[in-house]
Amino acid sequence: MKTRMQDGVVTWREVVERHHAALVDDLTLRLDSEIQNAVARAVQKEHEQAVTQIERARRTTAESLNQTLRLIRQSAAEAPALQLLADGSAPYAQRAVVLLIENNQARSLSIRGATDENAFTFALEDAPAIGSAIESKDPVVALGSDREISARLAAALGTAESQSDSDGKAYLFPVVARQKVVAMLVAAGDVVPAPLELICEAAGMKIELLVPEAPSPLKPLPNPELVQITAPSVPATATSERRAWDDLTPEDQKLHLQAQRVARVRVAEMRLYHAEDLSKGVFAGRIYTALGSPIDAARTEFLQTFLSKSPTMVDYLHLEILRSLAHDDDRLLGPEYPGPMV
Length: 342
Prior knowledge:
This protein is α+β, with helices and mostly antiparallel strands. It folds into three domains: 8-74; 88-191, Beta-Lactamase, CATH 3.30.450; 246-333, no CATH class. It is 55% helix and 14% strand. The chain contains twelve helices and eight strands. β7 and β8 form a beta hairpin. α1 runs parallel beside α6, α2 packs antiparallel against α6 (193-210) and α6 packs antiparallel against α8 (250-273). 29% of the residues are buried.
């Protein structure tokens, strides 16, 4: 059977085939659309699940960090406060050793994650990297070799050169109390530095509260029969800073030390809780634009708590922001940064 058209004769088979081809094209378009929608829904679901997991991980990390900080604040003695550093570092490092620093020696107080957890002691001269961190009072990343951190500590952390399963790095976090390094947290293996630095700052602040401050020495009364001799070999610049500190009252000295600690903690919190914004700000050369809210909040607190309380106060917050966030390059703070408050 045939059907006639104006330009010729078309068979029913050709009509059916054309109709079938049209149906196939339409079905293909529908299938493609359904597949694209299904893929979009799956991607959206994966994204939502990933966001949920990230938020859950952030909450867990924040809760763990807050618990560690709370336990440190509640410590009744120096040793328990320092021992908490090893356990509290677990979410941020695979292995950790807490060292007590005294008499040019380092003694292990707590060890976590090492195959050999026996206590040990070594001379600081055998660990130049630790000596450098003690001198600077700042965190240091060093090679975890025998020559840098001592053979015993390298073996405990698994960072010795002969061990290929380690990244070979040791992260050193000094615990500073009364301007002196009294202990050190040494971590290795997938280390997240910011929270470790924060808990070490908290431990140092707690130890300062636990250790009684030594009384200031009494100044001798002037005697007209005595002649004071000043050594001409000492430059004025070498003694001016010390004289300025000695001229402060004990209350002012205590307030200055507290201001320094608070400045370090607030800036460490910025690095911890706003790490992504900080990276963007450093890259763009506008740290203040990226971290305006936490910086302004810290400035307001510092102004009300310290700058308004003493005319001798220094803007330690600005100095810490410049050092820790901008790496001593004020250009990275950006033109919007209001500058020091005094």
